[in-house]
Known about the structure:
The complex is a heterodimer of chains A (310) and B (328). With 310 residues, chain A is mainly alpha-helical.
Amino acid sequence: MSIVTPVPPPTVPGAAVEVPRGPAARQVPGPLLFLARSLRTLWSNGKARIGLVILGIDILVAILAPLLAPHSPTATYQSPSATNWFGTTGNGQDVFSQMIYGARISLLVGIIAGAVATLVAVTIGLIAGYRPGIIDEVLSFITNLALVIPGLPLMFILAAYLKSRSVWTIVLVVAFTSWATGARVIRSQATTLRAREFVTSAQFSGERLFRVVFREILPNMTSLVAGSFFAAATAAVMAEASLEFLGLGDPNTVSWGTILYYAQQQNALLTNQWLMVFAPGLAIALLALPFTLVNFGVDALSNPRLREKA
Amino acid sequence: MRYIGRKVALFVITLWGAITLNFLLPRLMPGSPVDAALGRLASSGVPITNAERRAVEVQLGVPHGSLISQYGDYLNSILHFNFGSSYSFPSETVAHTIGKAAPWTLALIGVTTIVAFIIGTLLGVYAGWRRGKTADTTVTLGATFFAAFPPFWLGLLLLFVFAFKFSLFPIKGGYSPGETPSLSPSFLADAVYHSVIPAVTLAITTLSGWVFGMRNNMINTLGEDYVTFAEANGLRTRTVALLYAARNALLPNVTAFGLSLGAVVGGSVLVEGVFSYPGLGNLLYIAVSNHDFPLMQALFLVITVSMLVAIFIVDLIYVRLDPRVRQA
């Protein structure tokens, strides 16, 4: 499934069978090559490049956390020393080390919740866009309803009902509340693509529904899918921090949200420990920001014309 | 007329959908929210009358009885604003608690939206006018950057700097302790003074929606013939930018209102919590952290319905503003 050459519209209806299987086998790159090409396209956009660099640093910090952190994030210390650069929490844990390990949870929640939300958005958007009539009406109604219902309050309420306090609950809650925007965009794109010649010819050549939707229509929406992923990931990073700040997360996980929660519980600001509040918030912003910045470059992913200009 | 008819129909269906979702939520959740709520209510020291038990059951679900009859009871109790009692505020009904808090949030969100609209639109006009230049990149990147901050965190920081370090603004609350809420000028001034940092916090984090909407509209409008014509006539740059391009680009930006409102309402929950502002957001903050299901459920309904109504009103105003919509 190449994004550089979107599935070429076959002019002869019978040729549709050949295109993905015959010569395409040589063109279709492996997942790694696909990723490399996408990255190169994104890199050519100035804003997306800044995003990729910051995101790369975030990922490195998350992976290398055990090497970078001067202390264990959960070990307790009797009294703060000069090696506790950002001070210690109320339980005597090193905040700086918690900051570094916190990158793992935020990245994990952002990427997984973003991916699940995108999966829901793609499924609902594609079905609604490809199946006009009652199915489209019902799915569009659900999408519009989900769009106007305030997401953050809904998230808080869901999290309050679901008593299991794990990161996975947060992932589910976030995914459940942030798919609608993506679904609407993907649906309208699928509606226009459905009427195009290459889709008609694939249908006439007897391709199965599944193949038409996923091999003919989906590759033309790479930028929309990537766009809704990065938007959902941004929302997920913010939502995770908000839920944990509210005390609705697992208080034993080491994450930026829980550092803020404990900081608020022990009135860190009023005792002048402002770093304990400042650092995690800045870290959250520096993870949400690159997701948004990369989104400036995704339009070029499935539209080569935009690439030349940049 | 057909446009209005379609909007009204859509509004009614969406409203029904939101009310039904509010009905289904507690019934779909694991465990029994009713038992939890009644248990907590009992431990808060209020004697539970039969009427109260019934009100909680209607809101959160009864273990017995068909879903249809429960739905009928639920709709009936909503029409009468009967949301039962909460254990966070045992001495008053949920409807009363919410009624007291609503004006504060309305005022806060109103001020925030006006401030964000004015600043965001002006920045958007500027960025759109200088599209592709350094000024455009600076504004776009800046708006993206500020949108990446969690609103409650920005609130904490502003609170620390302006209220704690420099004591320029009050640390918490919606009015000075000892004052009684009234509409007297001195009280209103006090309330506005207390709302400055929460409003600025919310405005900064929701600015980007207005900036991007206005910038993109500006770029579209600048391609129109009448702008080229105005430039060819030798009009001053500022005249062309503000009176020809921005004036026409402003209209579609009204639709950004719905989007912006969602962000403001969502952000206001935690920001009000941080400032102990006496509004609906702070109530939801209290309800959620205490697992106060009756209050939580009623608040969610009130917030959702108010948002739907606000977006509906803006849709209707839009018809007045843009004659093209009426003909389409």
